[in-house]
Amino acid sequence: MAKVQRQTMPELISQEIQNLIEERGLKEGDKLPSVEVMTQLFGVGRSSLREALRYLEAVEIITVINGKGIYVRDVDTYRFSGKIKIEKEKRFLLSILDVRRALEGKAVELAAKQITPAQISELTACLEEYRKLKEAGKPTSRIDLNFHKGVMKAAANPILASVLESISSLYERFFNEPLGDGKLFDATYEYHHTMFAGIAAHDPEQALAEFNKLMDCIENIIRTY
């Protein structure tokens, strides 16, 4: 059974503001009630309301003009839902990316110290398959995931493997065309090779440096999407 996601107060308020725009039929350029009026209307504190307004302004639904008021910027319902969905997905992926950096980064260091010749051969074959799929223009998300799982296996730390497995469903979101776009895999392709070179050479410092470049690339794509 799926868990019910809890919404924060600013998220709930931002939804109420969107409902208000729709219910009143407000259009682009129309003025919303003042902060004072909306705190009373929704029965919330000023700080929570202002956070909700900052969020709605960030996703271009409203415009706040100091000394003048709050104005509707976009009233297209489809674009409303699309922007909200993408913004939430970006925040989610960035939060999980922080955890991934810590856990998988440690796995990369351990793998560089402990990888066996047989595991080096397995990862070499994995990257060769990755190359063939990429050059053929075929999806590479599954082979990408297999590569990272191979690195974790080479780390040979059952506790770390158990922790990573416990968040596997969240971790694998990165390998399901995050944000509906597969460009992430092409952008990070080269770092799989440079990271593996460090692992195969038993050089934890090089391997971790290249892993962090891969993570930086993913983070940049998510933030600028």
From TrEMBL:
GO terms for molecular function: DNA binding; DNA-binding transcription factor activity. CDD domains: WHTH_GntR. PANTHER family: TRANSCRIPTIONAL REGULATOR, GNTR FAMILY (PTHR43537), UXU OPERON TRANSCRIPTIONAL REGULATOR (PTHR43537:SF5). Residues 7-75 form the HTH gntR-type domain. It comes from Paenibacillus lycopersici. InterPro entries: GntR_C, TF_FadR/GntR_C, Tscrpt_reg_HTH_GntR, WH-like_DNA-bd_sf, WH_DNA-bd_sf. This is FadR family transcriptional regulator. Pfam families: FCD, GntR. Keywords: DNA-binding, Transcription, Transcription regulation.
